[in-house]
User: Fold this.
Amino acid sequence: MTWRTRHDTSLVTRRRSWSQSSTAWPRNIPSQRPWMTVSWPLRTVLKNGHELGIDTSKVGVAGYSAGGNLAAVVSLRLQEPEFQTLPKLRYQVLLMASLQKVDLNLPSTANEVFYGGLMSRQGSADFALSYAGLDLSPDTVQQVARNQHVLPETKARLAKYVHRNLVKEELERTSKTLKIEQEVQPAETQTAANRSLAALAEPIFLHPLFSPLLAEESSLQRLPRTMVVSARYDIVRDDSLLFVRRLRAARVPVTSLLLETAHHISLTFFTPEPGSEVAKEAYRKVFDFMKQAVNS
Assistant:
C-alpha cells in the first residue's frame, strides 16, 4: 500500500534527518501551522505589549485538550534563538492535554469504553494523523490506533518516557485512592509495526513540537512553572501524568491536579449542568495558580 501525505515526498525524505534534540521545524511542513498561528501573535504581545499597557513580565500560556498541546509546544518553541530576546513566560497551564501519540495503548487509552466513549482510540489516531498532515484513510487510522506506526525498537528506546509502568507509579504518587488495578488493563499487542507507515510517522510523532512529552531534558529545564490538570476518565490522562513526571525530573516547578470524578470535557460544564461544581473548583485552583505565578 502507498502511504499518502499532504505534501511531496521530498519533504518526507527531509523529515527523516531531523534531530529530536532540536525544536527546529521546517516552515513548509503543514503540521507546523497550528503552533505558528499561536506563537507569532504571542511573540507580538511579548515584544510590543508595553506599548499597549501590558506587563510582559507576567504573561503565561494555557490550553485545553489540543490547545494544551499547543500551549506546551509554544513554551518549547519560545526557547529558539529567534525568541531569546523576548521576556520569558511566567507560567503554562495544560488542561486535559494531548502530549504524545507514540503509544496509544496506555492504561487510560485502553479504558476508552469503560470511560464512556467520550474519546476513542480511533478518534485519537485520526486527530494525530490530521495534525501531522498524513494519510487519513480508515486503514491508516486503524493501524495507528493499533500502535503499528512506531517501531518496536523506537518504543523500547522511549520506554523511559512513555510506558504503562511509569503511569502506574505516577498515579500512585498523585492519588491516594485510584489504582491502575481498578481499571481495564492494556492488552499486550502483538500486531507487527508497519515500517512504511513508521517511516512517515515517526519523524513527526517523535518531534517535541508534536509530542512535547518527548522533549530533551535540557529543553524541559527551561520551561516556566507549570500546572497540569488531568481527569481520571480521560483517554489522554496518562499523557499528563507522564509529563508531570518528566517536569519533576527536570526540576521544573510543577503542580498536578488530577480530577478523580471528571472526564475529558468536564471543564466545559457550568451551572446548571451536572458536574459543574467540578469545573468551578478546578478553575478556581487554576486561577489561584496563575495569580501566584505572576505575583511571586
User: Anything to note?
Assistant: Confidence is low (pLDDT under 50) at residues 1-23, 25-30. The first helix runs from residue 9 to 15. The two ends are 56 Å apart (CA to CA). The longest strand covers residues 254-263.
